[in-house]
Amino acid sequence: MDGGDYAALVAAGAFLMLVLVLAVPILRLRRTIDAATRVIDDLNDRTGPLLGNVNATVENVNTALGQVHTSLDGVNIQLAKLDAMTGHAQQITANVANLATVVSAAAANPLVKVAAFGYGVRKAAAARRHADEEREVRATLKEQRRAAKRGGR
User: Fold this and answer.
1) Whole-structure pTM over 0.90, yes or no?
2) Secondary structure of the chain in the HEC alphabet?
3) Per-residue b/e over 11-47, b at no fewer than 16 CB within 10 Å?
4) Section 44-65 average pLDDT
5) What's phi and psi for 2, nearest 5 deg?
6) How do residues 91-136 score in pLDDT, each as one tens digit?
């Protein structure tokens, strides 16, 4: 055996020692990786149903949102109809107000004239009655004075 053989034998021994020294951490690392693999598999087993439930929930929410959207479309249609009815009612109210103004203007002038005529007739009748009564009173007084002048002579 020469020196090269000894060097190779020492190098092989050192390499064997290195492999043995590194084998322990590698085996421990293998156990750690196996434990991590089990945890990941367990998480996969648990998250599968969770994701299924989440998907079902999202589908239910989407269905509910579709129904809400449909309901809101119906409400918007009804609001549009109500807006049209309100506009028509506003036009009718304006027409009635204009008609009331026209009727009031047309009827007010003749009514005022009739009322004034009625007042004038009442005043004239009252004045005539008063004049008749006054004439009667004067005639009665005149008769009484004449009778007194005749009787006193």
Assistant:
1) no
2) CCHHHHHHHHHHHHHHHHHHHHHHHHHHHHHHHHHHHHHHHHHHHHHHHHHHHHHHHHHHHHHHHHHHHHHHHHHHHHHHHHHHHHHHHHHHHHHHHHHHHHHHHHHHHHHHHHHHHHHHHHHHHHHHHHHHHHHHHHHHHHHHHHHHHHHCC
3) eeeeeeeeeeeeeeeeeeeeeeeeeeeeeeeeeeeee
4) 90
5) -100, -175
6) 999 999 988 888 877 776 777 788 888 999 999 999 999 988 999 9
